[in-house]
């Protein structure tokens, strides 16, 4: 409605004059299957009702013309539309190759038809492979394209096809505000986008009060009551056919166990449908007393069936779109509709290893009644679309214009630019110091800056920005091209958003802090943020002992104990970003108190803070210093004094270090028995003091199958900075992270 309020009456008059007052807009509607016809039919009825403004031609192709899929072209004839052309374009086989061949066959046949029809505009719906062939043919033959339902997001290959059609189309009719925003983000011209709602809603919102009991009886039996049956419609997922077939098998098992009358519609023509039909027949669905298996239900009747069902189950877009208009409970299975906007009536089962999860979902959803949802339309889409069609100026240039956002001028391609070293700005936010470095692609620290870490949030962020700006300026002088900024910090980090969720007690005022936005805004560079333990693991993967190793663990032994886990070459973050908090593995129920509030953590035994605590106890009892040691009066007792005392023969210091090494070793054994890595890398200032103790504990305590692990000390001089740099360098050079 906003779009049309912005169109003046004078503009409408000018368009009519340009097109000629008597010119009818020649519209070609191409429909490929039962699903897209349900969206296109209301538009076709609207066009047919205005013969003074439009001339309509209908092309039918795809699965409409296949007996196994119900010969659904007949419903188009029953709706009293003249079919201008029938094109048999489906190559049977129902696999990936058959889909490609079907697109090719359609591309061969369509040019002759379009040459004869010469439409002003072709209306194409959705995201099917047949629709891609239609849009490609029309675009190459200089025919304007109106794309229905562009800008939406779902799973599988459909997303790619939908967005490809968007780039070919000249005009767009979308159903939701989010879809409209996606189209704008894809650089489509806002003036050529209409937010109309889904055309099928024009029929849906007036359908529920019609006679429905006779329809339910016809398809499910005389004894079936409203809200006491299920409608099942599941299609193959072309990007993961085996898994989708397994999911379908589990769905049928769950439906058999649930023991309710169920109407099962055959899947569409996508790759994998043949295997799904075999699963139905193997389980005897077509002859089971509780099931009615059908190839096609006319859309008017299908509306009544889902409107009064106890539940709909499957992965059809109909479940997450149209069914919401009635508040019918829906169970959406798998990933085929991932990303779709849904009402509260939809319960998602993303994955299922057994039928139990699906069965539980059925028990939760069946028989409920939810509020009706109008996410996808308000029942007035067709009038908006017809008005939009009338506003199209055929005298305007056919060539599309994309509305790209403003970008900075590219750096000129001169020899100095070519010879620049690709580099990253690495930031290490420690408990004591704040460090920034320019790090090259090979892991060379070209320049490093160090300052004391301020105590307050404002001062700390100001100093980070100041140091980064200084380093970025210096990068030009040392011939480095900065690709981005990587930040290593203590605490729990959401790397997707660049937010420090909450930090360790060593870094005060550092919780719920968005680091990415202010630094990216100031430097005009992409910014990545991660936990310091994860960064150490990334540094080892790119520059250290972990290079080329599929599964390994890095343990940092410093002021605290941290680490990172690389599994199948990928860093593990965990569901709430607290994976690899290795310092808080509990190795004793009665151990010393840890900073986290628990007792007996590795960090409470083996961290620098823990060793300093024990050193102070010995010093207070005059048991620390031995011959060969001396301390100034104002000197603070540290872990280094404890280590020195142990080396000089202090048996109590030796015992403390032995206990710390044993605690760390027990933690490593737990890691071996959980993750089974092939390599453990000890990093940090205490690593060399612990490596032998850790190996001894592994030999004594680990399972024989885990004892083959290699335990090494990191050879990286600065893993925190190198890890922060690798956040940038791995991503910007298109490696997986």
TrEMBL record:
One cellular component (GO) term of this entry: cytosol
A Pfam entry, by short name: Epimerase_2
UniProt xrefs under CDD domains: ASKHA_NBD_ROK_GNE (cd24060), GTB_UDP-GlcNAc_2-Epimerase (cd03786)
Pathway membership, UniProt: Amino-sugar metabolism; N-acetylneuraminate biosynthesis
GO BP, sorted A to Z: UDP-N-acetylglucosamine metabolic process
Binding site for an N-acyl-D-mannosamine: 492, 504, 532, 581, 584, 603
The keyword Metal-binding is assigned to this record: yes
Keywords: Allosteric enzyme, ATP-binding, Cytoplasm, Hydrolase, Kinase, Metal-binding, Multifunctional enzyme, Nucleotide-binding, Phosphoprotein, Transferase, Zinc
Record bears the keyword Endoplasmic reticulum: no
Compartments where located: Cytoplasm, Cytosol
Annotated residues for binding of Zn(2+): 584, 594, 596, 601
MF terms in GO: ATP binding; hydrolase activity, hydrolyzing O-glycosyl compounds; metal ion binding; N-acylmannosamine kinase activity; UDP-N-acetylglucosamine 2-epimerase activity
Active-site residue numbers: 532
Catalytic activity: an N-acyl-D-mannosamine + ATP = an N-acyl-D-mannosamine 6-phosphate + ADP + H(+); UDP-N-acetyl-alpha-D-glucosamine + H2O = aldehydo-N-acetyl-D-mannosamine + UDP + H(+)
Main location (coarse class): cytoplasm
Subunit structure: Homodimer. Homotetramer. Homohexamer. The hexameric form exhibits both enzyme activities, whereas the dimeric form only catalyzes the phosphorylation of N-acyl-D-mannosamine.
Sequence similarity: In the N-terminal section; belongs to the UDP-N-acetylglucosamine 2-epimerase family.
Name recorded for this polypeptide: Bifunctional UDP-N-acetylglucosamine 2-epimerase/N-acetylmannosamine kinase
Organism: Acanthisitta chloris (rifleman)
């Amino acid at each position: 409605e906003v779009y049309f309020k912005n169109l003046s009456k004078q503009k409408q008059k000018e368009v009519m004059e340009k097109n000629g007052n008597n010119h009818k807009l020649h519209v070609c509607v191409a429909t490929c299957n039962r699903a897209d016809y349900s969206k296109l039919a209301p538009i076709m009825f609207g066009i047919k009702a205005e013969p003074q403004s439009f001339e309509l031609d209908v092309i039918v192709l795809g699965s409409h013309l296949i007996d196994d899929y119900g010969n659904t072209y007949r419903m188009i004839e029953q709706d009293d539309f003249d079919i201008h052309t029938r094109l048999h374009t489906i190559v049977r086989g129902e696999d990936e190759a058959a889909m490609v061949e079907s697109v090719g066959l359609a591309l061969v046949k369509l040019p002759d038809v379009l040459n004869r029809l010469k439409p002003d505009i072709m209306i194409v719906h959705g995201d099917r492979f047949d629709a891609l062939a239609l849009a490609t043919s029309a675009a190459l033959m200089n025919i304007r394209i109106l794309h229905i339902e562009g800008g939406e997001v779902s799973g599988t290959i459909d997303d790619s096809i939908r967005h490809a059609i968007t780039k070919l189309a000249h005009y767009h009719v979308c159903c939701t505000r989010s879809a409209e925003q996606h189209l704008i983000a894809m650089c489509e011209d806002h003036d050529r986008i209409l937010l109309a709602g889904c055309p099928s809603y024009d029929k849906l919102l007036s359908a529920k009060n019609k006679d429905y009991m006779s329809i339910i009886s016809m398809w499910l039996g005389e004894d079936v009551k409203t809200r006491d049956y299920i409608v099942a419609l599941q299609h193959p997922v072309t990007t993961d056919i085996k898994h989708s077939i397994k999911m379908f098998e589990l769905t049928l098992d769950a439906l058999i166990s649930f023991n309710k009358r169920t109407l099962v519609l055959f899947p569409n023509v996508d790759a994998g449908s043949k295997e799904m039909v075999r699963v139905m027949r193997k389980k005897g669905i077509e002859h089971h007393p509780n099931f009615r298996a059908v190839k096609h239900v006319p859309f008017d009747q299908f509306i009544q069936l889902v409107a009064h069902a106890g539940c709909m189950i499957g992965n059809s877009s109909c479940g997450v779109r149209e069914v919401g208009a009635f508040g019918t409970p829906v169970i959406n299975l798998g990933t085929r509709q991932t990303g779709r906007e849904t009402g509260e009536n939809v319960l998602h089962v993303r994955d299922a290893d057994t039928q139990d999860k699906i069965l539980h979902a059925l028990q939760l959803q069946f028989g409920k009644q939810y509020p009706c949802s109008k996410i996808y339309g308000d029942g007035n889409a067709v009038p908006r679309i017809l008005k939009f069609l009338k506003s199209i100026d055929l005298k305007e240039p056919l060539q599309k214009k994309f509305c790209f956002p403003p970008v900075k001028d590219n750096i000129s391609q001169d020899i100095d630019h070519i010879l620049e070293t690709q580099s990253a700005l690495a930031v290490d936010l420690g408990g004591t110091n704040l460090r920034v470095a320019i790090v090259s692609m090979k892991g060379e620290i070209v320049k490093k800056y160090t300052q004391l870490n301020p105590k307050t949030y404002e001062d700390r962020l100001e100093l980070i920005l100041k140091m980064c700006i200084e380093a970025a300026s210096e990068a030009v002088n040392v011939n480095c091209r900065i690709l981005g900024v990587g930040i290593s910090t203590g605490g729990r980090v959401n790397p997707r958003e660049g937010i420090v969720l909450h930090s360790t007690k060593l870094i005060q005022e550092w919780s719920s802090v968005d680091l990415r936005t202010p630094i990216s805004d100031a430097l005009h560079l992409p910014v990545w943020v991660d936990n310091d333990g994860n960064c150490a693991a990334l540094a080892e993967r790119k520059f250290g002992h972990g290079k080329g190793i599929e599964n390994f663990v890095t343990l940092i032994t410093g002021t605290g104990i941290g680490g990172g886990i690389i599994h199948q070459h990928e860093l593990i973050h965990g569901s709430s970003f607290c994976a690899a908090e290795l310092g808080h593995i509990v190795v004793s129920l009665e151990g010393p108190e840890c900073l986290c509030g628990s007792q007996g953590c590795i960090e409470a035994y083996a961290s620098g803070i823990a060793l300093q605590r024990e050193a102070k106890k010995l010093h207070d009892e005059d048991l620390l210093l031995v011959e060969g040691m001396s301390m100034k009066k104002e000197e603070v007792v540290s872990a280094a004094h404890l280590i020195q005392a142990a080396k000089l023969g202090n048996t109590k210091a030796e015992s403390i270090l032995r206990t710390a090494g044993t605690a760390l070793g027990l933690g490593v054994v737990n890691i071996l028995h959980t993750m089974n890595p092939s390599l453990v890398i000890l990093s940090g200032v205490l690593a060399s003091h612990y490596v032998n103790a850790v190996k001894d504990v592994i030999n004594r305590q680990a399972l024989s199958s885990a004892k083959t692990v290699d335990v090494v000390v990191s050879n990286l001089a600065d893993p925190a900075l190198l890890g922060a740099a690798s956040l940038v360098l791995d991503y910007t050079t298109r490696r997986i992270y």
